[in-house]
């Protein structure tokens, strides 16, 4: 509170980035957690809320640039860009200083998650955190098993993906224990004679690290390893690249050349492709060659996390489900110590530590979901929501840099968990096109990484673009059809019920129906119904009977039946059953539990 | 036949363009097609066949001899690139020289359309030509009316030989004014009506550039524009859109042509749009194809190449112009006169695309045919020259119509619910613009087509496409969307323009992602339709039993049924999109299997596969694609509709 110099400014203008003429006038409020812009033109109250923790920078532009007052640019970590024009320069200055302070908390204690109190009791809150448990995840993967004690692996392939940081090899140092460790990894996979060691860095970077006593594995010292560089750039390159790309997004009316040149020049898609290429390499090694892979970069918490987790998404269909994806982030990112607080600049820190590593991971998954629209249970909105909350600091999950720090902060005792929030709102995040039983969905994904397969992710980077035509979502259209179908089904069921009652009365009178193909109608299990065409024609032929009695069926009765029926009839094309079960159940079942399925899939793969 | 030296070569290898894979087979050369039949080997049960229509081959190139044989590369107009390797140089040369002759027909009589015979009787053929009726189309728009009339001034192609016979002009434009104006316009193409926006009484007119030079005037032309202006009471001025870059228009003045001087014409607002000319477009496409044809392209090369070729910039320019046109007409209610130099390239693009934005009818299958018939065919877009149908001037060739199709595709990506037709409809039209299999696109203008007696001697593409309409329907189409948004307002921010992979990489299987959303959508729809029809049957039954069905607690639960009982209510969704049509269950089953199969591995097809260019494109394309990427949330990609038909030249003529 003490940081707020000015809680309220009136007559503030919010400029529209695309159509500056459509600017809106309203009142700006500063609260402890949010900046709120309220406009009340034509009696319609419209509010824009911006969380302070999402603000990445605030700039003031000299008053001369806009005659109606001083202009304040607010850049957000979720790529929202707001430009306010404040009539009095002093007010603008006050807002600027307050916002700067509010958006750069000096300690964890100031973060929103410690103040965020949704209306749930303590027990419920605790249950949120129990929602995801990593031990059950390793159990799902079939670990520990005779070959593996505790590390990341995939039971089916028998080959494993392991992660580490760079060796301290310098120019010639060796470490026998380390060599034995890799030997152990090798032996754990009886089907292969080699282990791939993937250094995700460009070779030049790795060589430079040797001078500092670090470096990479010497193939001569380690027996049976195949060493491979991947050429993913470091956090500084990525930070600059995203910065450049965002500048392109913010251009007022870019020409086609501005856009394409800017996009190329930023290198962003090149980096995304590099991560996906590396992941595809690992996935291929594990799935097709049956070779275990050790992945590292420098410290093993940035590029390694990216590559391992994208490879997991490629390899294991479970990670393409809602629950599985949460587990994946929990495992490869949170528990293995991706430095979220540093990379996302949660508290005022070293700007050189900030880097959009997690953004890139989410984008890789999005690019994959564009290539395999039926392979993912979740939709784009899910990825965007996760991205939003990685930066919002509203939930405790991403606070701190590693497990130890989180325990010290008492995250699980004092904050709420994003995962249970996402799970309880999962209806919003379901991809209506998901087909869990599609042959491609079952196996490993083999994406194309040709340049034209990578697209600019307008949904994330330009999602706050206003003034553009209303976006129509095909997904919503499909969902609407689906819901409509479900409603039809409900009614259908009640009608059937009614008919069966009516016909039941007639049953005693006439025996004609007994032989008719519509006899199924009397069975309680409506799923045994034939195709509609079949019984439509039946009704048409046998439908000459005149209406006689009409016993009244009261609406509550109807609803009762339809509800019951709705539960029994599974009309969902994809995964409604998953909704009911929950993650714990999901993680217990291996996607490859059926050998038959797997074999056919493998055959399909090998046919390639 | 006399041009064919070697009808058959064995042991020919077909190289994959982007990988090191190859297939062995036999090559056949017929009078109309080049056919590659894959050799049977133990592992595959059926052979793949590729049929390439001679008219589709843009160029044949013999590369220098290698250790493996003698390579022959064919570039096709539908962006297929085939690379054969012959074991013997002699055979390669024979095929090459035969092709050189075969793919350069010198007279219209040699074109495929005159020999193509799909086993139809004359009556069916004639009915095919009657499918599209432009007079009915003008009536649909509301002309003739109190301000616009049909003129017979061009009844005998006397005033303008590249215009159609039927032309619509303002009521106040007398014959002398028309004739005078036509003498002041390039190629005599005076201002005529092409689209009438009834709601605001605003007109879209088209013409060629005025012969104004540096100072020439023409009073008739001025009064022609005046009468266009007067025909619209809603606006005191008309826009004159010169779709060329200003520099080009200025340069034209030196040749006695140019643009309208605002001082001489009262109440006009003059506007340059800046679409480049046919030569720029030709080389832009050439560069684009070079970039995307590169093997192991890096991200930088791709983006730099995409920018450098300028193709998307040109596409954006056309869409920008169309948006301007649609806004002027629908928002300002002003009439617009569109021209470029001759008024048959850029003008056709902008008028057609602008109309498509304004009028939902053109977003239906039939409407799109009408639109092409009107703005492209009847107004004399020079298809023969632009598509190189006869051996002609290479400088006249240009992908103007391809650009138009791409602009429409870009719009379908932004408005997935607004179009009745899918991408496959556009691709199929593109295929046949170049195939010369149907008479519609032959020749350069209506007069020429009449001389060739195309309606008597060839078949109409529209009838063929209409007959298999099911294949081209967009499963996302929602007529309600069009009622709510009759005028589309696309964003032309650069990132909305995407590379059209299915056009330019249509035949490069390895370039396509393999997962299809079609089946999922169809299953969804099938279930919906089943539920709906079952419900109807049950309700009928209930009715017979004397119970009035009670609509469940939610009154909106059954929009479709309600709508049926009330024919005036607008359908919330199309009654049947694909599966509403009578497709037998067995057929669906088969198709599902087929889908599944291609889905598994696009490269391995076990079915006897025929890729016949210029005939059953949908069929063959569907098979050769495998599963396509679908971008459901950003924009939808559609696949050919479900029914795979057994038609096509291959089966009909062999």
Description of the molecule:
The complex is a heterodimer of chains A (608) and B (654). Chain A is of the alpha/beta class and 608 residues long. Chain A folds into three domains: 8-104, PH-domain like (Roll), CATH 2.30.29; 158-468, Alpha-Beta Complex (Protein-Tyrosine Phosphatase, Chain A); 475-607, no CATH class. Chain A contains 25 helices and eleven strands. Chain A has a seven-stranded antiparallel sheet with strand order 4-3-2-1-7-6-5, with helices on one face. In chain A, α19 packs across α22. The longest helix of chain A is centred in the C-terminal third of the chain and has 36 residues, at 474-509. Chain B is of the alpha/beta class. Helix content of chain B is 39%, strand content 13%. Chain B has an eight-stranded mixed sheet with strand order 5-6-7-1-2-3-4-15. Chain B has a five-stranded mixed sheet with strand order 10-11-14-12-13, sandwiched between helices. In chain B, α10 (346-358) packs parallel to α13 and α13 runs antiparallel to α14 (423-435). Chain B is globular and about 75 Å long. The interface between A and B is large, with 94 and 98 residues. Chain A: Residues 546-608 are annotated as: Disordered.
Structural class of chain B: alpha/beta
Helix tally of chain A?
25
Rg over CA atoms of chain A: 29 Å
Query: N-to-C terminal Cα separation of chain B, in Å?
Result: 16 Å
Write the layout of secondary structure elements.
The complex is a heterodimer of chains A (608) and B (654).
Chain A: E1 8-15, E2 24-30, E3 34-39, E4 46-51, E5 55-61, E6 70-76, E7 81-86, H1 89-103, H2 122-130, H3 134-140, E8 161-164, H4 176-188, E9 195-199, H5 203-210, E10 225-229, H6 235-249, H7 256-266, H8 268-289, E11 292-296, H9 303-315, H10 322-335, H11 340-343, H12 357-371, H13 380-392, H14 403-409, H15 411-414, H16 418-424, H17 439-442, H18 458-461, H19 474-509, H20 512-515, H21 532-542, H22 555-568, H23 576-581, H24 583-588, H25 595-606
Parallel strand pairs in A: 8-11, 9-10, 9-11
Antiparallel strand pairs in A: 1-2, 1-7, 2-3, 3-4, 5-6, 6-7
Helix pairs in contact in A: 6-7, 8-9, 8-12, 9-10, 9-12, 12-13, 19-22
Chain B: E1 8-15, E2 22-29, E3 33-38, E4 48-53, E5 57-62, E6 70-76, E7 81-86, H1 89-102, H2 122-129, H3 134-141, E8 148-151, E9 167-170, H4 175-183, E10 192-197, E11 202-207, H5 219-230, E12 238-242, H6 246-253, E13 268-272, H7 278-293, H8 299-309, H9 311-330, E14 335-339, H10 346-358, H11 365-378, H12 383-386, H13 400-414, H14 423-435, H15 446-451, H16 454-457, H17 461-467, H18 479-484, H19 501-504, H20 518-544, H21 559-565, H22 585-600, E15 609-612, H23 617-625, H24 649-653
Parallel strand pairs in B: 4-15, 11-14, 12-13, 12-14
Antiparallel strand pairs in B: 1-2, 1-7, 2-3, 3-4, 5-6, 6-7, 8-9, 10-11
Helix pairs in contact in B: 4-5, 7-8, 9-10, 9-13, 10-11, 10-13, 13-14
């Amino acid at each position: 509170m003490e940081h707020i110099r000015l809680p309220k400014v009136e007559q503030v203008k919010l400029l529209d980035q695309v159509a500056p003429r459509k600017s809106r006038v309203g009142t700006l409020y500063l609260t402890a957690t949010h900046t709120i812009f309220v406009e009340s033109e034509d009696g319609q109250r419209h509010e824009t809320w911006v969380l302070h923790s999402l603000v990445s920078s605030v700039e003031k532009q000299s008053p001369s640039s806009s005659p109606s007052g001083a202009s304040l640019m607010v850049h957000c970590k979720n790529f929202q860009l707001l430009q306010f024009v404040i009539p009095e320069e002093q007010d603008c200055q006050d807002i600027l200083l307050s916002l700067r302070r509010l958006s750069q908390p000096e300690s964890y204690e100031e973060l929103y998650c410690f103040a965020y109190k949704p209306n749930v009791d303590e027990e419920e809150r605790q249950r949120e955190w129990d929602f995801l448990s990593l031990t059950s995840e390793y159990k799902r993967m079939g670990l520990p098993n005779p070959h593996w004690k505790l590390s990341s692996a995939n039971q089916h392939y028998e080959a494993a993906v392991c992660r580490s940081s760079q060796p301290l090899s310098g120019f010639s140092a060796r470490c026998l224990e380390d060599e034995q460790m890799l030997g152990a990894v090798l032996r754990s996979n009886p089907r292969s004679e080699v282990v791939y060691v993937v250094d995700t860095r460009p070779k030049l970077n790795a060589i430079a690290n040797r001078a500092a006593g670090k470096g990479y594995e010497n193939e001569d010292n380690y027996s049976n390893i195949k060493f491979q560089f991947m050429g993913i750039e470091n956090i500084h390159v990525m930070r600059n690249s995203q910065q450049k790309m965002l500048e392109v997004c913010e251009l007022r009316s870019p020409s086609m050349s501005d856009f394409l040149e800017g996009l190329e020049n930023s290198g962003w898609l090149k980096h995304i492709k590099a991560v996906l290429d590396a992941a595809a390499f690992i996935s291929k090694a594990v799935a097709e060659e049956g070779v275990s892979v050790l992945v590292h970069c420098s410290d093993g918490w940035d590029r390694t996390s990216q590559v391992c987790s994208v490879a997991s998404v490629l390899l294991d269909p479970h990670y393409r489900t809602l629950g599985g994806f949460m587990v994946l982030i929990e495992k490869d990112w949170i528990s293995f110590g991706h430095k979220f607080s540093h990379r996302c600049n949660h508290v005022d820190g070293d700007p050189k530590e900030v880097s959009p590593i997690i953004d890139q991971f989410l984008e890789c998954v999005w690019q994959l979901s564009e290539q395999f629209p039926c392979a993912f249970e979740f939709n784009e909105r899910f990825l965007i929501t996760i991205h939003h909350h990685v930066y919002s600091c509203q939930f405790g999950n991403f606070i701190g840099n590693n497990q130890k720090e989180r325990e010290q902060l008492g995250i699980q005792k004092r904050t709420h968990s994003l995962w249970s929030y996402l799970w309880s709102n999962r209806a919003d995040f379901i991809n209506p096109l998901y087909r869990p039983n599609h042959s491609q969905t079952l196996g490993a994904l083999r994406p194309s990484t040709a340049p034209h397969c990578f697209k600019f992710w307008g949904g994330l980077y330009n999602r706050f673009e206003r003034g553009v035509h209303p976006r129509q979502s095909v997904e919503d259209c499909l969902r609407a059809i689906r819901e409509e179908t479900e409603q039809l089904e409900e009614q259908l069921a009640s009608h059937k019920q009614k008919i069966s009652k009516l016909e039941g009365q007639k049953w005693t009178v006439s025996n004609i129906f007994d032989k008719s193909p519509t006899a199924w109608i009397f069975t309680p299990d409506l799923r045994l119904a034939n195709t509609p065409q079949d019984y439509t024609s039946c009704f048409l032929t046998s439908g000459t009977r005149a209406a006689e009695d009409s016993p009244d069926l009261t609406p509550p009765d109807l609803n009762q039946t339809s509800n019951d029926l709705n539960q029994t009839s599974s009309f969902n094309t994809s995964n409604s059953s998953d909704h009911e079960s929950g993650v714990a159940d999901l993680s217990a079942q291996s996607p490859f539990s059926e050998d038959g399925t797997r074999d056919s899939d493998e055959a399909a793969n090998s046919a390639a | 036949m006399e041009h064919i030296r070697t009808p058959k070569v064995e042991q020919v290898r077909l190289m994959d363009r982007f990988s090191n894979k190859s297939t062995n087979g036999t090559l056949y050369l017929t009078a109309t097609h080049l056919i590659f039949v894959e050799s049977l080997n133990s592992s595959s049960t059926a052979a793949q066949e590729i049929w390439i229509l001679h008219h589709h081959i843009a160029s044949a190139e013999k590369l220098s001899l290698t250790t493996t044989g003698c390579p022959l590369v064919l570039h096709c107009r539908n962006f297929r690139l085939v690379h054969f390797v012959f074991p013997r140089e002699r055979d390669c040369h024979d095929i090459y020289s035969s092709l050189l002759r075969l793919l350069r027909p010198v007279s219209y009589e040699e074109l495929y359309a005159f020999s193509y015979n799909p086993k139809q009787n004359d009556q069916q053929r004639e009915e095919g030509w009657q499918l599209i009726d432009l007079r009915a189309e003008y009536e649909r728009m509301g002309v003739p009316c109190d301000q616009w009339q049909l003129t017979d001034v061009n009844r005998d192609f006397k005033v303008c030989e590249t215009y159609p016979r039927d032309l619509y002009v303002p009521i106040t434009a007398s014959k002398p004014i028309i004739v005078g104006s036509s003498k002041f316009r390039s190629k005599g193409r005076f201002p005529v009506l092409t689209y009438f926006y009834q709601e605001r009484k605003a007109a879209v007119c088209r013409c060629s550039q005025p012969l104004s030079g540096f100072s020439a005037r023409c009073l008739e032309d001025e009064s022609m524009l005046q009468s266009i202006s007067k025909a619209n009471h809603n606006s005191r001025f008309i826009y004159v859109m010169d779709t060329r870059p200003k520099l080009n228009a200025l340069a034209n003045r030196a040749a006695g042509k140019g643009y309208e001087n605002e001082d001489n014409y009262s109440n006009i607002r003059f506007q340059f749009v800046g679409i480049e000319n046919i030569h720029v477009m030709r080389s832009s496409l050439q560069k684009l194809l070079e970039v995307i044809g590169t093997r192991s392209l890096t991200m930088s090369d791709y983006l730099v190449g995409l920018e450098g070729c300028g193709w998307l910039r040109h596409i954006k320019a056309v869409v920008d112009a169309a948006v301007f046109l649609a806004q002027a007409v629908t928002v300002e209610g002003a009439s617009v006169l569109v021209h470029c130099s001759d008024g048959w390239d850029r003008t056709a693009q902008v008028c057609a695309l602008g109309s498509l934005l304004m009028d939902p009818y053109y977003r239906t299958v039939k409407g799109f045919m009408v639109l092409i018939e009107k703005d492209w065919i009847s107004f004399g877009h020079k298809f023969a020259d632009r598509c190189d149908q006869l051996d002609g001037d290479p400088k006249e060739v240009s992908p103007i119509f391809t650009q138009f199709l791409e602009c429409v595709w870009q719009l379908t990506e932004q408005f997935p619910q607004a179009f009745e037709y899918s991408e496959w409809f556009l691709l199929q039209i593109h295929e046949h613009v170049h195939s010369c299999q149907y008479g519609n696109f032959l020749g350069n203008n209506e007069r020429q087509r009449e001389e060739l007696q195309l309606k008597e001697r060839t078949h109409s593409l529209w009838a063929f496409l209409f007959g298999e309409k099911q294949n081209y329907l967009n499963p996302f189409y929602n007529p309600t969307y069009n009622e709510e948004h009759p005028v589309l307002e696309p964003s032309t921010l650069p990132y909305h323009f995407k590379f059209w992979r299915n056009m330019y990489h249509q035949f490069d299987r390895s370039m396509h992602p393999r997962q299809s959303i079609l089946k999922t959508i169809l299953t969804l729809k099938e279930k919906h339709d089943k539920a709906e029809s079952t419900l109807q049957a049950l309700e009928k039954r209930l009715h017979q039993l004397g119970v009035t069905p009670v609509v469940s607690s939610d009154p909106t639960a059954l929009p479709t049924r309600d709508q049926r009982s009330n024919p005036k209510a607008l359908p919330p969704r199309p009654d049947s999109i694909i599966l509403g049509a009578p497709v037998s269950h067995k057929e669906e089953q088969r198709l599902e299997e087929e889908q599944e199969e291609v889905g598994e591995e696009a490269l391995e097809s076990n079915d006897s596969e025929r890729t016949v260019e210029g005939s059953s494109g949908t069929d063959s394309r569907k098979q050769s694609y495998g599963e396509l990427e679908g971008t459901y949330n950003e924009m939808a990609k559609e696949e050919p509709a479900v029914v795979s038909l057994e038609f096509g030249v291959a089966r009909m003529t062999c």
